[in-house]
Amino acid sequence: MTSLPHTACLRARTASGHEIACSPSDVMAIETRVLPHQACCMVVYEPLPDLGPTKSNMARYFSGFMQPMPWIYLSLDQNQATDPERSTRVAFDLAVQQIGGRGGAHELFALERIIDYHERVLPRYAQEYGELILFQTVMLSPPDIRKQGDDLVRTVLERLKTIASGDDNFCRHCGKDGVETRCSTCKKARFCQEGHVMGWKYHKVWCKPAGA
Q1: For a FRET experiment, which of 2, 13, 108, 208 has its CA 20 to 30 Å from that of 74?
Q2: Of 201, 200, 163, 164, which Cα lies nearest the Cα of 184?
Q3: pTM above 0.85, yes or no
Q4: Which domain, by its residues, includes 87?
């Protein structure tokens, strides 16, 4: 978010039909503690062709055993209502897959109103402990890990540039590039064959017939 100009407008649309618009300065980090319902194993596989056709580097990461672990997500919007029912803030959780989770419409991430996120989405995959802690900024990761984040930031910014220029030929569900097929209803959103099926539950909430 700090890479975006302060004049940028962030728009969040959830699968429940909730929409907010805010500036990058209205984004905060929230930390809670969770204990996943199931143990999860993530495997990062990296081929090493220089060492031979069968050589690879593999790292495993485990979570969801005996102790609750820190869990951080982003909160969008400047609304400060203390009543969850009245708050318009939106939770943006990019890591929910790490505990076997999906968004409310089976997205690869969770983008939900705060109350929906804590009452309907996160409880499917983990039990929460303790109070929520809000941060305006977060501690930077070690340099080797931060480089991965910097690479991702550059990728996202490049994608935003292509959207602004109208060259947005990527699947709205999985992000695959070079997709030509469009939604048959709105004639705008592009989906690959698999992505159209998986992404329809979310897309249908905001899809409007062409010319409407």
Answers
A1: 208
A2: 200
A3: no
A4: 10-135
- Nearest partner of 89 among 119, 110, 113, 72, judged by Cα: 113
The answer to whether 127 and 35 have CB atoms below 8 angstroms apart is yes
- Dump pLDDT digits (tens) for 194-205: 888 899 999 999
Range 35-45 burial, b when 16+ CB lie within 10 A, else e: bbeeebeeeee
Query: What does the block give as tokens for 36?
Result: 């996943």
Question: Which of the pair, 42 or 181, is modelled with greater confidence?
Answer: 181
Distance CA 63, CA 80 (A): 33
For 23-172, where are the E strands, in sequence order? 28-36, 40-47, 56-63, 69-76, 90-93, 110-113, 126-135
- The DSSP call for residue 192 is -
Structure tokens at 149: 């984040």
What number of residues does the chain have? 212
- Percent of the chain that is helix, strand, coil (3-state, to 5): 25, 30, 45
Distance CA 155, CA 91 (A): 22
DSSP 8-state assignment for residue 131: E
Look at the chain and report how many structural domains it folds into.
2
CA-CA distance, 198 to 211, in Å (whole number)?
25
Q: How many CB atoms within 10 Å of residue 1?
A: 15
Domain's final residue, options 135, 159, 192: 135
H-helix or E-strand spanning residue 12 = strand 10-13
Which phi and psi (to 5°) does residue 13 adopt?
-125, 125
pLDDT at 147: 75
